Automatic annotation (TrEMBL):
This is Amino acid dehydrogenase. It comes from the Bacteria. GO terms for cellular component: cytoplasm. It comes from Celeribacter ethanolicus. SUPFAM superfamilies: FAD-linked reductases, C-terminal domain (SSF54373), FAD/NAD(P)-binding domain (SSF51905). Transmembrane segments: none annotated. GO terms for molecular function: oxidoreductase activity. Residues 9-403 form the FAD dependent oxidoreductase domain. Keywords: Oxidoreductase.
Amino acid sequence: MSNFHSRHIAVIGAGIVGLCVAERLLSEGHRVTVVDPAAPGGAQAASYGNGAFISPASVLPMSAPGLWRQVPKMLLDPTGALSVRLRDLPGLLPWLWAFLRAGNRPGNVARIAGDLNLLLRDAPARHAELAARTGQSDLIRQTGLLYAFRDRAAWQAECSVWQIRAECGVVMEDCTAARLRALAPDLSSDYGFGILISEGAHCVDPGGYVAGLARYLTVSGAELRQDRVLGLDLSGGQLRGLRCAGGDLPCDRAVIAAGIASAPFATEAGDRLPLAAERGYHVEIADVPFRLDVPVMPQDGKMANVTTRGGLRAAGQVEIAVPDAPPNWARAEVLLSHLKRSYPALAGRSHDLKRWMGCRPSMPDGKPVIGRASAVPEVIHAFGHGHVGLASAPATAEIVADLIAGRPPRRDSAPFSPARFGCGVALRGPT
Ligand SMILES: Cc1cc2nc3c(=O)[nH]c(=O)nc-3n(C[C@H](O)[C@H](O)[C@H](O)COP(=O)(O)OP(=O)(O)OC[C@H]3O[C@@H](n4cnc5c(N)ncnc54)[C@H](O)[C@@H]3O)c2cc1C
């Protein structure tokens, strides 16, 4: 029996976003069912293979002023740090156009950074609390995060974006070569300058963290249903439940948190939203003769280097492509060879290596969609977290809980509204 305070809420997707939302809703007394065809923490989800950074500095969108000049390179160099899969170009053109425009409008990068800062400024603290509540404190480490440059001049060449981070209140410490060595003794001496984000944190097992959240939810009373959601049951013009491969699931509210698979559900609820895959890769080496106590982002490679429970992971690359295109493993080789150059102790060794490809669920402006669906207010969008889904999941959950409770939001959620794309669609009449 549902009442104003306690509702049956179905969450579509058991990635980091869906499970953070579920944890929050359960703690507020709701009945929660999470539906996912795959086991939580599995390699099908972006939440499994990411770079593990929980960084208040990740406020900048991928799109930047003048990026359009790199379009030929993006199309012609399939292993460049940012590329578009040529054969997918026709279908991706509208998204790509919106993506290039997002960074090119004057002042927009700073505006987007200010918006993402709403989700990221306290992300390390929120994850530390979540991990403590769910018995996983050993997985979240508040060691800081190190951005490494060849020299101070390389940092100065990017100083406008670091200025934006400073304006967001990100705490940064300049690191001389000696300080860099002290923080990351195994990093190549080719790197002579660094910025330490002292408030940054990381997760030593992103997939394990998700699986642990699922276990916690199950013992705390949520239901995890292994099933594929096929669509929303909107008979009579309002949400009745979810249509699943294994049978219908009646519910009062639904949260769309299916990562890259979210768009068709959003369309059913009245919002045709521009979601595309920025595919990324990782390599993970099991037998490494050192560990990184502080994760490193070598700025020339734009990849996260982090010691996880599985070994040394390098995660990065942006490949704008259809989600189910075959992986281009040459991209994993790019990550591996950069890793070998960055850590001389890896040279000349054979490695026990794992490779992975996954889809960042990305909106063209780099911001997630968090808000009520335009045509079905019982449906809440919580997807499109792009490069920052791990870090921003707890803040997303807080906003979703406020929306479901009908409370004034503790965080401004207007910048994440689906309405910013002006893509409402007329719903079919009652069926
Ligand atoms: C290489 C790489 C590096 C990254 N590095 C970082 C980083 O350092 N820090 C950071 O914050 N973020 C990072 N990200 C981004 C982050 O991983 C994602 O934004 C985040 O994992 C998205 O979480 P999600 O829960 O929305 O989606 P996912 O983790 O993809 O989960 C979606 C879930 O929905 C399920 N699903 C799909 N279809 C259905 C259906 N029909 N019915 C029910 N369920 C369904 C899937 O099985 C899946 O479990 C990185 C991403 C990549 C690829």
